[in-house]
């Protein structure tokens, strides 16, 4: 009996430390798991607060002032309402004068929001007035526009009109969209900077067809604008040998044609006329660029819509046929007459030389005399 008791006691003593170690290990595992759970809970709470912050930023309350006039519907706040009303009136007038029913219907399908906001800059946050193109859909292809605050009614109208111009060309057929290329309709008048830039391009473009256009060859002007397609290759119609060096600055031959690519590299580097001719002649017909840019064509389209008056844009979109047929229908007159008036307006936009104020001249002379006097005094002191 005593031997059996001693055996049991020995077995108990042998297993007792192992059970204690196992219990301590389980306790440590539980503590580690608890700490892990608490860390994950903390991360989830932090991320949820970030998500809530982003949601509040994106889903802002819509301003409570509702302004409707004609096809334009805008929501804004009470402090901006007087300026926004004036802006809406000017945009409605623009649609009535140059737009038509198509522009009006596309504008009326959306509700814009004009509110105060801020934007980052190198000096910190700057106050702006944000013009949100649409509140009826979650995503819009027309982004938000911003004008610096405090903005006048004309500045707000300019931003709102730009959105209407973008709406106008959405959904037009690919042929017309490819010719316009700018992605908006020219419903607003051209600014002085736009007119001056168009004249500079028209007057300085190195192209044979543009030189004929400047000489009042109407068919050459229509060809340079991409309206008419005359017989022959684009290179022969639009450019002469003297224009090849300027041409290859904007167009390169196919990279598979190694000889033409080598000539294209030598043309501007070594000023070799023969290399320029090889590179230009290697251009496929589709890669020869139009001599006048999309911005100049945009100005011509503005002249067309100005000539056509009310409903001009409707006729432009609805008329079948070539680009020339559609432009003539929109202008509601022979296109040659429109081209002549466009040339007159273009040549009248020649920028004047910058005038120098007399006060600036006097101040410059004064500073020059002061610097010269100081230099003479220092030289005398050294002597």
Structure notes:
This protein has 383 residues and is an alpha+beta fold. 61% of the residues lie in helices and 9% in strands. The protein is built from 17 helices and 5 strands. A 5-stranded mixed β-sheet has the order 1-2-3-4-5. A hairpin with a 2-residue loop joins strand 1 and strand 2.
Fold topology:
Blueprint: H1 2-58, E1 65-69, E2 72-76, H2 81-99, H3 101-108, E3 112-121, E4 124-132, E5 145-148, H4 153-169, H5 174-180, H6 192-204, H7 208-214, H8 218-224, H9 234-238, H10 244-247, H11 258-270, H12 273-281, H13 294-308, H14 312-318, H15 323-331, H16 335-347, H17 358-382
Parallel strand pairs: 2-3
Antiparallel strand pairs: 1-2, 3-4, 4-5
Helix pairs in contact: 2-4, 3-4, 7-8, 11-12, 13-15, 13-16, 14-15
Largest sheet: number of strands, sense, barrel closure:
5 strands, mixed
Number of E-type strands? 5
> If you compute it from the alpha carbons, what radius of gyration comes out, rounded to the nearest whole angstrom?
36 Å
Distance between the termini: 127 Å
**Strands ordered across the widest β-sheet:** 1-2-3-4-5
Secondary structure class reads alpha+beta
Principal-axis shape: extended
The mean pLDDT is 83
Helix content: 55-70%
Helix count from the secondary structure assignment: 17
